């Protein structure tokens, strides 16, 4: 199973649309129940250090998660380094592969 977290949409894409706290809380509750989830794609408004840091401990509860794709067309090296630090426990404990992609 795969899950895609992208910018909130209502018809047309909204550049820079904020992810609400309610959306994050709902996801924090739902993710541990997604026991068949193997791939997670994060991009758009979800691709912030704060949100990824908040989701990282929850992702550790998904036993079959194998690959985490982080989509950002212009990811600066310092943000990539920060993401690596945030996700280091997930990589070490769960053997999840983190892949950075621009598309």
Give structural notes:
38% of the residues lie in helices and 21% in strands. With 103 residues, the protein is α/β, with parallel strands linked by helices.
Major sheet characteristics: 4 strands, parallel
Low-confidence stretches: none
**N- and C-termini, Cα separation:** 20 Å
> Strands of the biggest beta sheet: in what spatial order?
1-4-5-6
Mean of pLDDT: 88
Using DSSP, what is the number of strands?
A: 6
Number of helices: 3
Q: Short description, anyone?
A:
By secondary structure, the protein is α/β, with parallel strands linked by helices.
List the helices and strands and how they pair.
Blueprint: E1 2-5, E2 9-10, E3 12-13, H1 21-30, E4 39-42, H2 49-59, E5 67-71, H3 77-94, E6 97-101
Parallel strand pairs: 1-4, 4-5, 5-6
Antiparallel strand pairs: 2-3
Q: Key terms for this structure?
A:
103 residues, alpha/beta, 4-stranded parallel beta sheet, two-stranded antiparallel sheet, 3 helices, 6 strands, 38% helix, globular
């Amino acid at each position: 199973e795969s899950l895609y977290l992208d910018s909130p949409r209502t018809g047309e894409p909204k550049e820079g649309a904020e992810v609400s706290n309610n959306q994050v809380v709902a996801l924090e509750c739902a993710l541990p129940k997604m026991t068949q989830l193997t791939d997670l794609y994060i991009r758009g408004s979800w691709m912030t250090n704060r949100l990824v840091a908040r989701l990282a401990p929850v992702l550790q509860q998904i036993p079959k998660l194998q690959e985490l794709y982080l989509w950002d067309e212009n990811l600066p090296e310092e943000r990539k380094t920060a993401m690596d630090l945030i996700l280091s426990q997930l990589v070490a404990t769960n053997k999840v592969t983190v892949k950075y992609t621009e598309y």
